[in-house]
Structure formats: C-alpha cells, structure tokens
Design goal:
The chain has 665 residues and is α/β, with parallel strands linked by helices. Strands 12-11-20-19-18-13-17-16-14 form a nine-stranded mixed sheet. The protein has a four-stranded antiparallel sheet with strand order 7-8-10-9. Helix 2 crosses helix 4 and helix 17 crosses helix 18.
Length: 665
C-alpha cells in the first residue's frame, strides 16, 4: 500500500539557490530524540540558522485507510524566516520521504511525502528489531533540495517577437466617433400620465373578465413599455393570453404582445408601444461601455433592449445570422449597423467582407472599402457582387477557401481559427510550408430570395455547406430576405442558422417560419425586431445609422493607405467547364445525334426536354447534355435557365455532325 502526495514550499526568497542539505537516515532512535536529531542535522547546513522547524506527531495510518480520510489538520509544518521577505516558490523546494513503520504510526503528515508499506521486516534493512524501543516509529526521513535550472546567457536564447498582422497597415486609423450622428428626438420620453393611463386600462380590462391582479410593474424602453403583472391565485394564464386583442382595443395601441409567462420571472408581460418612440442612434451604441470594453472576437452591436441596455453579441458565437422582415421594416439598416460595428472594432488585416447585393443599390456604399476590407474573385471587375451568375462562382470559391483553411488547421494541429492565429502570431508555424495569418471572412447576402429564384439549388447547397462547416475556420454568414417563406428559408437553411432576427412581417405564418414562434407579426416596424438564440427570444430596437454617416465612415477609411488590391479568394472554374471536362467523345451515347437534332429543332437546351421526348432517365439525359456541351452544340450551365443552343438550323448541325463523326473515326 503506497501513497504519494506532492507539494512544494518555498524556504527562501533569495535568487541564488541554497546548497544541498544532506542528512543521514535516522535509525534506531527513540521518538523523543527524533526532533533533536533533525534540528541538529539541519543546523549543520548553510541555511539560515534562524529557521524554525516544528513538528507535531503521533498520527496513525491503518492499512485499509484512504489517504483522503486522514486528519491532516492534526499535523503542522512551519518554516519561518527572520527576514520579512516574500518567499519565492521557484527558489528553494523541499521534498520529504517517509517510511511507515511496523507499528502503523507516522510522526509527520506535512504534504510532500511518500508512504510505503514495509510490513515485511525481512525486506526492509532500516526497520528496527523488536529489541529496540517499542515507541520507535520506524520513520526514515530524507530531505533534499531541488535547484532551478538557470540560463547562462538569457539574451542569446530570447524568442523572436510575435508576428503583427497589422504591421503592413500600421498607420491605419480606426473610424472616429464624431463620424456618427445623434438622432435623439426631443420630448420622446414616456410621461407619468401615459404610464398611469395604460396601467389603469390594463387593470380595468382584466376586471371586466373577472381577472384579479396582485401586482403590476412597468419597464420603459426606447419604443415600447413592458408591463409585468402577477395575477391572483387561481387565475389561468391562458385566459389572459386570449385577451390580447381586447387589451389592444382598450389601449388604442398599434400592437400588443403578451408574454405568458415571462421566462425566469414568474410574471406575465404585456408589451405596449410608446406614443412617442425614441430613435436609438448608432452613436449611442458604439460609445457604450458594453461595446467599447467587449472582448468579443467579432462584436456586433444591434440595438437596445426593453430595459435600455445596449445589446452586443459575438458573431463567432452565433455563428451565422438569418434576417427576415417585410419591405421597409429595417433589414438594410440592421445590416449597416452590423457592418459598422465591425468596422469600429477590427483592423483590415483581421476582417474581410464578401458582399452580395442582388438589388445592386443597398451595399454599393461600401465599394470604397475595396482595398481595405473587401474580398473578391481574382477576375472580378466590381468589389460588390451584383451579378447572379457571379454568385455561384463566389460561393464555390468560399467553399474552396474553407477546404484550404481546414488543411492548414490540420497541419497546425489546432481545432479553430483562433488557436491557429495564436500559434501563427507566436511564430510556431512556418510560412514556407503554406501557413499564413487567416482573417475572419463575413459573407453578407442582402436579398436571398432573389438568388433562390434565379439559381435555386446552385446557391442553396454551397450556402448550406458553408453554414455547416465554416464557423471553425472563421467564415460567418449573414443572410437577409424579405420573403420568409418555406420555399426560400428551407429546412436545411434553418437548421444551420441558429441565430435569427425578425423585423415586422405580414402574417403569423411568416413569423413562425423565421422564429418558430409568433410575435414578429405584432411588431410596430421601423427597426422594432425580435432576435432568437436557441430558446431565448429578446425584443430589441435596432440601432439607426443613416446614409450620410456611412458615407463619412467609408470616405474616412477609403482615403487611407490600403492594400494593393482587395483580398483575393481562390480561383474556381465555372460549373459548365467542370461538366464539360473529362468527356470522352469517342464513347458518345447512342441517342447523342437524335438529342442534338431535338435540341436544335426546339432551340431549347434543357435536360428535361431530352428526358421527356426520348423517354429516358434523368441521369442518362444529363450525360447526353454534358456530351452536347463538350461537342460545342449547347452552351455552358446557367443555373435554373435553359442552356444556350449554339446552332440555329438543322443543316449546319448535320454538317457539324458529319465532321464530328469523321474526326471520331
């Protein structure tokens, strides 16, 4: 039975390590002389002679006892220094070794000892015989001092300085607070008269239906006021929930939202819009202590809660965001608030945006940031992607970037981008082996419904793959749409976007589609929104930032020295080139020529046309279409559109087929 416990105690604060203390094993001594023998040996050393050692002994260990059950408070070990210096644990360390005697006693239980079972007397050379004094505890005490490993020339072995990713744009200055405006409206505060009137109307309406209230409390927010009520015992919550329209009628309010019950409060909440709603300025959120002192990787300032607290979240924890709402309810302003909050916190070397704007007018304000914050394809002429055909290539490029980053993480033996960058900054990764500093990439799509209508699965599948895998390597998605219907926000999309924002929508069905719960249809608009993260549903007033403010911020950043070009994404081949590559024209399908004639007659390069007219399966029709493309009869793949037919008449087609067959022979 052996027990091992390790603990180190400092004995001196001097930088030089004390010399080795050597003592002889104490054998065949009585217990009363044990302390004297130790102190005598200790004073022979070069330690300070004023050290005082005290031991309290007579501690028993049974053979079946667990060491955790022993009463350590009965044992004390003291080391005091006459000099009032603080001890340094790295300077002098002691280690004690104890051997349990045949009588089962141990005289000291100071931590840092080793206990062995020596019940077999024949195997122990240091155990006393029965002729010795019966009070002897058979304890062997060895004291040894461990020395620090000292560096002879510290300056010669100093590591390299940490890599600084901001060094290339070291002169870059973050945007100033003065670039933002304060949009506060005078006389927007809720008056006491309004509060009392609303309270009385709520209580009176509930009394009409014989519902008694024990307590009511009001919390004033920027656009709504939350009235929390505690009903009398025996009142069913469902009765109050069903009176939503009646309370709205009595208050003459734009929309009432009842939360029954309030999570974690034991009350029922009634949200009533204020008569004069307050505008939450982006300046007030940026200057708040919660945003300025945040330690988030990608802090996003969205707005203010009902209790007038700034709401700041970390985009890396979301990790993707789905935004929905009717036209004109604040989606684009919300996206501008997200982008602005990131611009105020992150250096251009740490963050890149990929902006997709099918509407062509919402995100064009950020073109001035091309050489600082934007990422594009190598052959792209515009920094903001507005062409739907380029969207598929951009998403494919992001997927390739994701795969490349995962390869780097695998080589570096880390799990996420944060650990990778920490290792790279500490110069533990070799750039000659392909390692580089990885900035965060935020993909923003302003109108997702338009992409689904024009490209369908070609857009949905790469977005779903990015949402599933990309968070660990620093690619985060923010997707906005004004049509939160099930054919736009599919189950695959919803499953990979756990954080969702809903502005005012037209119907309860749309609210359930985006939030999985009603409530977004009862918002009052103009930035009033609900955000859900997991099971939490929080109502916010989105921060407002106007177009002139964005212009000033982009001008301030754009006029500074930037990189030579925008951040380049990996180059990918188009879908049509991929399909046409590797087609063996010597093994054409038997229906190849008939399909070519069919396509030219109908002037429609559609796989479904070949499948329907020739009564064949989709896979075979798809292979024939790939062969037609490789032969140059139809154009490349164009999403959901039919392929372009490159021959206008059958005569020219027949001539080409004859040449093709001749070449094949």
């Amino acid at each position: 039975m052996a027990f091992v416990i390790e603990q180190f105690k400092a004995l001196s604060s001097q930088k030089t390590v004390a010399p080795q203390l050597e003592t002889q094993p104490v054998t065949n001594k009585k217990a009363d002389n044990f302390d004297e023998q130790f102190k005598s040996d200790f004073k022979k050393s070069e330690f300070n002679e004023d050290f005082d050692r005290e031991f309290k002994r007579d501690f028993k260990i049974k053979e079946n006892d667990r060491l955790d059950d022993l009463g350590h408070d009965e044992i004390e070990f003291k080391a005091t220094s006459p000099t009032s210096r603080k001890t340094n644990i790295n300077d002098v360390v002691e280690k004690h070794e104890f051997v349990l005697g045949n009588n089962g006693k141990i005289s000291n239980d100071s931590l840092g000892f080793e206990v062995e079972s020596t019940l077999n007397i024949e195997e122990s050379v240091m155990m006393p015989t029965a002729a010795d004094d019966e009070d002897y505890n058979g304890l062997l005490l060895n004291v040894e001092l461990n020395k620090d490993i000292l560096v002879d020339n510290p300056d010669e072995n100093m590591p390299l300085e940490d890599y600084d990713p901001t060094l290339e744009l070291s002169s870059f200055k973050m945007p100033l607070i003065d670039l933002l405006e304060d949009h506060k409206i005078e006389d927007s505060e809720v008056s006491n008269e309004e509060l009392v009137n609303n309270k009385n109307k709520i209580v009176e309406t509930l009394k009409h239906y014989k519902i008694e209230i024990k307590k009511i409390k009001a919390t004033i927010g920027p656009t709504i006021t939350l009235y929390e009520i505690i009903p009398a015992p025996g009142v069913r919550i469902s009765r109050i929930k069903n009176l939503e329209d009646d309370i709205a009628l009595s208050l003459s309010a734009l929309g009432i939202r009842i939360i029954a019950p309030m999570p974690g409060r034991g009350t029922i909440g009634i949200e009533v819009p204020n008569q004069k709603p307050e505008i939450v300025s982006m300046r007030s959120i940026i200057t708040s202590a919660k945003f300025q002192e945040s330690k988030f990787e990608l802090p996003v300032a969205l707005g203010k809660t009902i209790s007038n607290e700034s709401y700041v979240v970390d985009l890396t924890k979301m990790p993707h965001l789905l935004v929905a709402g009717a036209t004109g309810q604040g989606k684009s302003v919300g996206l501008n608030a997200i982008i602005t909050s990131l611009l105020f916190k992150k250096h251009p070397s740490q963050l890149k945006f990929v902006l997709i704007d099918p509407k062509k007018v919402e995100l064009t304000l950020y073109e001035k940031l091309e050489r600082h914050y934007l990422a594009t394809l190598p052959d792209s002429e515009e920094a903001i992607i507005t062409d739907n055909h380029k969207v598929v290539e951009t998403l494919s490029s992001l997927n390739r970037e994701m795969d490349n980053r995962y390869d780097l993480l695998k080589k570096a033996q880390v799990r996420n981008i944060k650990e990778y960058n920490v290792k790279f900054i500490a110069r533990k990764l070799n750039p000659n082996k392909g390692h580089k500093y990885l900035p965060y990439i935020v993909l923003i799509i302003d109108e997702f419904a338009d992409l689904i209508m024009t490209a369908g699965k070609e857009v949905e599948l790469p977005i779903a793959r990015l949402a599933q895998l990309a968070r660990a390597i620093g690619i985060h998605l923010i997707v906005a749409t004004q049509r939160p219907s099930t054919n736009i926000i599919t189950g695959v999309i919803k499953a990979n976007f756990p954080t969702r924002i809903a502005f005012k929508v037209a119907s309860m069905i749309d609210s359930r589609t985006i939030l999985d719960s009603p409530g977004a249809n009862q918002l009052i608009g103009r930035g009033d929104m609900l955000i859900t993260q997991g099971s939490d549903l929080i109502r916010l007033q989105c921060a407002f930032i106007d177009t002139p403010e964005i212009d000033r911020i982009t001008d301030y950043i754009g006029t500074q020295r930037g990189y030579v070009t925008a951040h380049m994404l990996p180059e990918v081949s188009s879908e049509g080139e991929t399909n046409a590559a590797g087609i063996d024209m010597d093994n054409k399908d038997d229906l190849f020529e008939d399909a070519a004639r069919l396509i030219v007659v109908h002037q429609q390069g559609s796989t479904s046309l070949i499948q329907r007219k020739m009564a064949i399966g989709y896979n075979r029709a798809g292979r024939i279409m790939d062969q037609l493309e490789a032969a140059g009869i139809v154009g490349p793949f164009e999403g959901s559109k039919a392929r372009q037919v490159l021959y206008t008449d059958e005569y020219s087609l027949e001539q080409y087929l004859n040449v093709l067959n001749g070449n094949a022979r």
